[in-house]
Write a structure and sequence with these properties.
The complex is a heterodimer of chains A (497) and B (144). In chain A, helix 8 packs parallel to helix 9. The longest helix of chain A is centred in the last third of the chain and has 20 residues. With 497 residues, chain A is an alpha/beta fold. Chain A is built from 19 helices and 15 strands. Chain B has a domain of 91 residues: 2-Layer Sandwich (Ribulose 1,5 Bisphosphate Carboxylase/Oxygenase), CATH 3.30.190. The two termini of chain B are 18 Å apart. With 144 residues, chain B is of the alpha+beta class. In chain B, helix 1 packs across helix 2. Chain B contains 2 helices and 6 strands, in the order H-E-E-H-E-E-E-E. A 4-stranded antiparallel sheet of chain B has the order 2-1-3-4. In chain B, strands 5-6 form a two-stranded antiparallel sheet. In chain B, a hairpin with a 6-residue loop joins strand 3 and strand 4. The chains are: A alpha/beta (497), B alpha+beta (144). At the A-B interface, helix 7, helix 9 and helix 17 of A face helix 1, strand 4, strand 5 and strand 6 of B.
Chain lengths: 497, 144
Amino acid sequence: MGSIKDGGAAQITDAKQRYKSGVLKYVQMGYWDADYQPKDTDVLALFRITPQEGVDAEEAAAAVAGESSTATWTVVWTDRLTACDLYRAKAYRVDPVPNTGPGTKTEQQYFAYIAYDLDLFEGGSIANLTASIIGNVFGFKAIKALRLEDMRIPVAYLKTFQGPATGVVVERERLDKFGRPLLGATTKPKLGLSGRNYGRVVYEGLKGGLDFMKDDENINSQPFMHWRDRFLYCMEAVNKAAAATGEVKGHYLNVTAGTMEEMYERAEFAKSLGSIIVMIDLVIGYTAIQSMARWARNNDMILHLHRAGNSTYSRQKNHGMNFRVICKWMRMAGVDHIHAGTVVGKLEGDPLMIRGFYDTLLDTHTPEQLEKGLFFEQDWASHNKVMPVASGGIHAGQMHQLLHYLGEDVVLQFGGGTIGHPMGIQAGAVANRVALEAMVLARNEGRDYLNEGPRILQDAARWCSPLKAALDTWGDVTFNYESTDTADYVPTATASA
Amino acid sequence: MMTNQGNRITQGQFSFLPDLTDAQITKQLEYALQNGWAVGIEYTDDPHPRNTYWEMHGNPMFDLKDPAGILTEINACRKTFPNHYVRVTAFDSTRGVESPRMSYLVNRPAREAGFNVVREERGGRSVGYTIHSYATDKPEGERN
């Protein structure tokens, strides 16, 4: 019997020794198997582990596998009543993370690959999946820090989830909008406007040319504007703007509330007023999100998710979880929109990392691409696609970059870049829409729009004074800060430690 | 006259730009064909935002790979229906899409009638909204 600080042990195969009362190392208990061949039906997870001093890589990986599956701190004989070999998660590969360890600024970290049998999980429940994968294990003492980097969800498990209530393809069909990014804006100031004043901003933005306006994440039902008032004024604005333009328009009515009952009540009211879309915040929790996704599917509603709260655990590299995992879980849970980064705006985002998020939301199949932080091949089993939303510090002058980095299937949210326009909100919306259409036209014509972008915008600004004013006001605004979340990989495969 | 930007309906990919020339339309057709999409032409006199099924000027041209030939069809449609809305739609049959990938207007009436909002006042302060297309005020047989 040894403490977990002892190195160099192997799985104990003799049953009598293995189940003797006491404490064993996780490797000895069978949570490390370098020869394990993952099955197509296994759930796979990749963790970034910073072990405590004296804990070797395999033992740390085995400990994570153990604590996220069947293990407890001591041997229990009741394991022998079960098919415990099957239920034990297996750490099967561990690689040192490039640019960590002696001689670098960062202490040694490891990428640990862990396989979980499908029978460990309840079908159709993100709550159940996450209770294992990011449950107790993140507070486990043998590791200093732990980050869930990526997961491979087997097709068999994906098929137990509803997936996006509407999806990109059907959303576009309902909106009758194809071949260009959608345009939106968040109503500002986010707090304090009365219902009547709030609806004014919505009307101006939509009539000017935006497809969507949006409640912010913390607009729910406050003293300055209760939710029913907001819904009534916003739907007046939406319908009046639709009549003024001949386009389908929408406002993301945030139904986030303290209880499911209250969220359903708000969503039903939105539906009764003819809204095409409702919104929830990530902070309502996985089960509430799945419930709202089911409600949205049953009520022909697009479901927008604001990722409020995610940066508390997704931003730092050594601990927490990568946002791409949230993207995967949310596609399974069934949302239609999710905020996923802008590359060029005010919020965190390395271009390749963001592309990895977008691919995760939009592709029917994603190959392993380490440079994008995608550690596993993922077949999406015909689940609908989630529309990524780019929001935060973006403006018309960046249109060529936005189209290049984010592509066509995205909602570009220009909040300040619409409402702060010197000629007014409608003019701000016009500037964004003209910039967008001019850029899509140029791209389709085969022009080098990324390099010629500023020229294409200036040409359009010659006949569009709102665009000229936008470029004059914000043309030079950039947010050039180094990203904290970048890929750690070397182009060739790393040797197993 | 409509009161929004450009005084016209803003459906499709390019309604905020000046009307596309034949040369510009040809480049967009080339883009669709390069991607393997089939181009279809549709027309209507009622551009209500939820009027999904415009009349087809023939089936989508699955086998026509020449943008000049498609432009000829577009012009034939515009000539037959000079006071209708005409739109070009590109259909993508790829698995996971199987839906339009492009849609833009290439013709519109000289005077665009637009829409109004009909409000049905319900209980409380709720309102039921209907968007009404002025173009449908006349019987179909009397519209041009």
